[in-house]
Amino acid sequence: MLAMLHCGKKQIGAFLACILIFSSVFFSYVKDLQLQNNIARKNFPQAATTTASPVIELCKGKPAQNAITPLKGNRTLIITPYFDDREKKLTRVIGIVHHEDVKELYCWFCCQPDGKIYVSKASIDVHSDRFGFPYGATDINCLEPESCDPTHVSIHQFPHGDIDQLPRFEIKNRKAEPFPVDFTLCISAMFGNYNSVLQFIQSMEMYKILGVQKVMIYKNNCSHLMEKVLKFYIEEGIVEIIPWPIDSHLKVSHGWRYSMDSKDIGYYGQITALNDCVYRNMQRSKFVILNDADEIILPLKHPDWKTMMHSLQQQNPGVGVFLFENHIFPKTVTTPVFNISSWNAVPGVNILQHVHREPIIKKKFNPRKIIVDPKKVIQTSVHSVLRAYGKSVKVPRDFALIYHCRMPLQASLPRESLIRDTTLWKYNSSLITNVNKVLHQTVLQAEGRESG
């Protein structure tokens, strides 16, 4: 009996020793696993975007109503979420973020038909072209749950909590569609009580002659007269307005660099608007053009953009980003032709009278503007595409150039040092007819009513 008890004690001791050894190995394994996960999250932010499913939670939140939606604390502003499956099944939320203060965000996906919520940690990618401002254009990227195709998403600072009061955003670009248009032009942002009415109408009519089918304008504000013109183009079906009240949320700078004007964000959040415009048109336009209302990309060897882009793509297979050289036509230098009396009372310059351009300053940065295949763009800036699938190509100046009618950059140059360039006059007959039609239905009609 004593021998059996002694033997039992040995077995119990061995059993306890086994438990101790197993516990030590198990906890060491868990610690190792945690360490590996931490390293993975540090080196590969996308690895942190794992999904979870709080099965009791159901979709909540209030539908977002505005183009710019600030989250609590005003350190994150949401524009629009877009589905992006070019690499992974991803929701890319275009936003504006304070680059120092915002370190963690979560996507709360609303799945149908069960209405359950899936939470995914975001990678926060502030664009490199921030130019010193504390707020910058940002991609808030979240992997989507494999088990559903979410229709809506809310953005939260935490992976848990009450989201009843959070805005809920529809995820755009969920379905692939055939391109309804070849060319969409993005103008961002219209601000400063914009009133260059004649030049705007001339630019719009040139865009139409060259082949644009949609013009998207991120509008902060403009004059009362300009509103009449925009209303005409909206009713015509060519213009779509995206309200852009950025100055209701942030202190905006008129300059592009922080040292010029130390505000929250540069140039009315122009870079964010351009990125939103690219993604907004990714499924509905073959090409997207990024330029301002006083700029026109003029083909020199082709009659329009369609034939020009066909030629460029043949010469550069697989390229989706084309950069066009900027040429300033000073509005201070006038040619006494096409002096149309009915245009003289309309605010803004008559571009047909400005056909002298400044020579390019060698070894100085010359900002270009862009035509892109939106499906190949990941992030864009104003004068270049920051990240894309494939290369960018600089279009030679003898192939096409940007006609940019504005105040001179080289104001001291005498007239004889400027280059006479009448490319614009190729379109003068159609342009004059079309501009007169718009003016008589907007500005001149309004003046007639007022004088009567």
Explain what the structure shows.
The protein is built from seven helices and 24 strands. The chain has 452 residues and is α+β, with helices and mostly antiparallel strands. It has two domains: 51-170, Immunoglobulin-like (Sandwich), CATH 2.60.40; 181-451, Spore Coat Polysaccharide Biosynthesis Protein SpsA, Chain A (Alpha-Beta Complex), CATH 3.90.550. Strands 12, 13, 14, 15, 16, 17, 19, 22 and 23 form a nine-stranded mixed β-sheet that branches. It has a six-stranded mixed β-sheet with strand order 1-7-6-10-11-2, with no helix packed on it. A five-stranded antiparallel β-sheet has the order 3-4-5-9-8, covered by helices on one side. Helix 2 packs across helix 6 and helix 6 packs parallel to helix 7 (443-451). The N and C termini lie far apart (125 Å).
